[in-house]
């Protein structure tokens, strides 16, 4: 008696999972085209026309393992930098100046390119770029 009850509960659970999978696999209601993601997200127009560099960072001199090798990053070219006369720090008015180093990392070059295209950014890909901030396009 108890085993048939467990069997019925198992069947009910499977049916619930299958019906939820079908529901989640329905076609999307809204189709998002490339270059539209940036416009929908509220990013100002001047930042939608930015140029980015897609690169694979070089291994550091102290790095022995292969843990961080093969990752790809997107870095924005910074246009406005100046030295702060009070502190001597380098300042910028660019909100995306440090985004690439901190947050935009990808497993493959194709994933990084797809992300840039999705946001409508022009990009240049390079696998042997050691310091992307040194490049001025």
From TrEMBL:
BP GO annotations: electron transport chain
Topological category with respect to the lipid bilayer: Peripheral membrane protein
InterPro entries: NADH_UbQ_FeS_4_mit-like (IPR006885), NDUFS4-like_sf (IPR038532)
GO cellular component terms given for this protein: mitochondrial inner membrane
Family annotation (Gene3D superfamilies): atu1810 like domain
Transport among keywords: yes
Keywords: Electron transport, Membrane, Mitochondrion, Mitochondrion inner membrane, Respiratory chain, Transit peptide, Transport
Localization (cell): Mitochondrion inner membrane
Principal subcellular localization: mitochondrion
PANTHER family: NADH DEHYDROGENASE [UBIQUINONE] IRON-SULFUR PROTEIN 4, MITOCHONDRIAL (PTHR12219:SF23), NADH-UBIQUINONE OXIDOREDUCTASE (PTHR12219)
Family under the similarity heading: Belongs to the complex I NDUFS4 subunit family.
Function: Accessory subunit of the mitochondrial membrane respiratory chain NADH dehydrogenase (Complex I), that is believed not to be involved in catalysis. Complex I functions in the transfer of electrons from NADH to the respiratory chain. The immediate electron acceptor for the enzyme is believed to be ubiquinone.
Name assigned to this protein: NADH dehydrogenase [ubiquinone] iron-sulfur protein 4, mitochondrial
Organism in which the protein naturally occurs: Salix dunnii
């Amino acid at each position: 008696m108890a085993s048939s009850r467990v069997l019925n509960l198992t069947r009910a659970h499977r049916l619930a999972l299958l019906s939820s999978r079908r529901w989640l696999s329905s076609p999307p209601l809204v189709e998002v085209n490339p270059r539209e993601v940036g416009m929908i997200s509220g990013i100002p127009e001047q930042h939608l026309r930015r140029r980015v560099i897609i690169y694979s960072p070089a291994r550091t001199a102290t790095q022995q393992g292969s843990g961080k090798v093969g990752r790809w990053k997107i870095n924005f070219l910074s246009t406005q930098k100046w030295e702060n006369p009070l502190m001597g720090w380098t300042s910028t008015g660019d909100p995306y100046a440090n985004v690439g180093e901190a947050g935009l990392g990808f497993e493959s070059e194709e994933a990084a390119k797809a992300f840039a295209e999705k946001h409508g950014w022009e990009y240049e890909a390079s696998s042997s770029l050691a310091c992307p901030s040194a490049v001025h396009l």
